[in-house]
Structure formats: structure tokens, C-alpha cells
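[agent] plan:
  1. take the single chain provided in the ticket
  2. run structure prediction with default settings
  3. attach C-alpha cells to the ticket
  4. add a short note for the reviewer (M.T.)
[agent] executing step 1
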Amino acid sequence: MTIIARSSSLLRSTVFRSTRSSWLSQARYNSSVTRDPMTGEFTSMPDIEPSKLQFVKTDKPKQPPASSSLVFGHTFTDHMLTIPWSSSNGWGVPKIQPYAPLNLEPSATVFHYAQALFEGLKAYRDSKGRVTLFRPDMNMKRMNTSAARIALPTFNGDAVIELLKQLIKVDKHWIPDQPGYSLYLRPTLIGTQAALGIAPPTEALLFVICSPVGPYYPQGFKPVALYGTTEYTRACPGGIGAFKLGANYAPGVVAQKEAAKKGYVQNLWLWGPDHHITEVGTMNAFAVLKDANGVTELVTPPLDGVILPGVTRDSVLTLAREHAEGKTLLEGLPEPGKFKVSERPITMKEVKDASKQGRLVEFFGTGTAAVISPVDRIGYLGEDIHIPTGPDGMGPVSRPVWKQLSGIQSGAIPHPWSVVVTEE
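[agent] step 2 finished; step 3 output follows
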């Protein structure tokens, strides 16, 4: 790391599945650089090099606010990470510098053609002061698939993880030393070329900002009411629903406002004439059903090109499957022979019928911010479907899965998913 003098201002289809496999294979790159022996020009572009990191420490450090005053995504730490890219030189020098406005031209492609993507992950501090990241490799893989989808540059995910660690070490004192609190990281990649015209940008910027956050439900879990929207569609096969792009989120604000007017907290995205369940607002959707033989089934829609491959989604599925297979039992879940996990299509008709028959056990969403968000009511075609919740707001499947997952994230339960940033 190069240290520079202090400064306060610086700068649903088969086609999809096969293509997605190709994108995923690009999640990590060899960062070796080669040049033409005759011309000296690059024949492969430089990748991100953590060894070239420069550090500019702020000369105006802020005092972290009281934990009780934190509002998700409204408070930011003293420093940020920036890594420029150009088509002629590849990835440039990474720099940790004071948090400050970006210097962009009004004609930057991000403003006109939505050449923007982002990720969200958290750093946690355990009871011994150790700081860890939760499954950052998954975020880097997804970030690369998103970049490839909109012709932004891809990168070595391991290199960015190393730079994330360095950024966290600089601002680790911003992580509240209280249970349930963490440091939310927002890696972002945008097209910055100053030009009008729809084409792959010749310039881009990867940057990371950090925000201390508290528990999503500080007073305990509070189930939410969903509106099964049939007026809007979030995504369709062959589109961009499976990628974490900025363009996926702005159109959902209107749908959420409409749901709020009708008395619901969030909208439940449905797709197609059969009203297939896809996502819960910006979260993945899960339903728990019980069949005629008393077998409890945890169901979530498959990754068919419409669904975002959430890291929390994958974690919930993995923990639930390990229990169902008898590998790692979770206290409170039905015994393995009476519990199964399915990634399959599920419609609102199936949920409605299960409710009428007394077979709907619970319904919840999963995501980085809330981890698990229980649902107690779904408004659908003029009537409400009521969903059971326990005294604590959770259900019999989400509760033990959340307990195990949050234990891993906080460091209370040792697990390979926790990546150590610093031991103290």
C-alpha cells in the first residue's frame, strides 16, 4: 500500500442458463498482463492489483454517531475505495481516499443509459473484536455477471475482496460494538465515458462506500403485509431480472408506492398469466407448505432468468438442505424425513389454495439488509391471504434458519462462509 500525504479532497430460459454459466466463469481473471513484443501494446489488459493500492487519509475524520441514531444507508464512513478503468489501459491504480463527491461529466454514460450495477454485503464484529465478511466471493461473482450483462468491464474478484479488507481495516472503528450491528458495504460499478451514444463505455469506475447499520428489526421481528401486484412486472425471461443493476430498482418505486396506498408495506412481484411468484420487493421469496403426508416443504422460485441469485437466498437454501439431508441439523426444524427443500415454480393460486386448506405454514423474504423478513398477509385480487406467524413474528422454519445464519454472520458460530478481515 502506498501512503500519500494527508488530503481532504481528491479526486426463465435455457438460453439464459447457458449464457449465465458463461458469465459466471468470468467471475475471476488472471491478472497477468502481456504486451505485443513488436509494438509494446497491451494484448491483455491490466487487472486490478491490490499491491498498487494508494492510501490518502482524511484530515477531517468524523465522529461515528450513536448507534441508536443510525438509519439504514444514511451515514457513511470517512473513506471510500476507487478504481478507474479504461479500454486503452485496463484497470488503474486502486485508491482509498476520503469520502467525497465523484467528479463526473454531465455526459457520462451512467446518467443516460443506466450503465450502473452494485452489490451489498456486510462486515461484522464478533464478541472478541474480530471483523469478518460474509461470503464476499458470492458478491464478486454476481458483480461480474452483472458487469458482463451490460458490457461493463469485469475484474478479478479476489483482488477486490483484498481491497475491501483494506478499506474495512481503515474504517473498522465505524462498526458499532453491539449485537446486530454491522458495516454495510456498497461496491458499485458505473460507466463514466463522456459521450452520448449507446455502446460499451471506454471508461468506467468501480467504487466502494461503507455505512454503519443496525438491526433491520431493532424491536424484534415485525411481519409485513404484501400486495400481490398484477399491474406491474419486475422482469421477464431474457431480461435483466437476474442481475443487480440500477435499472432494476427505480421502476419498482412506483409499484411500492401503489402498494402503500392500498395499506401494504411492500409489493409481491408476480409474473405471467398464472401469476407466478418471483420476488418480495427487493428480496427473494420463500413459502413453507405442508403436504397431505405431513411433510414440510420450503419452496422458492428457481433461478430461471427472472430471479436475482441472492446470497442470503443461497445461504438459506444451503442450511435448509444440509438439515434435510441430515448433515447439519438445525434445532426446531422438522426431522429430515419430514422436511424437504424445493426450487420450483410456485403460483399465487397454490399459495391461496394452501391457505384455504390449512397447509400454508409461513411466507418470508430474504436479503442482505433484513436477512429474513416474515410476511403475515398478502393482498391478492381483492382479498387478503392471512399467513401464520409466531409470537416473535417468525415462523417454524424461518426462525431456526435465521438463528443459524445470523450466528454464522456474527461469528458466534464458526463457519467457512466467514472471511476474516482482522483479528482485532
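[agent] step 4 note for reviewer: The chain is about 20% helix and 25% strand.
[agent] ticket updated
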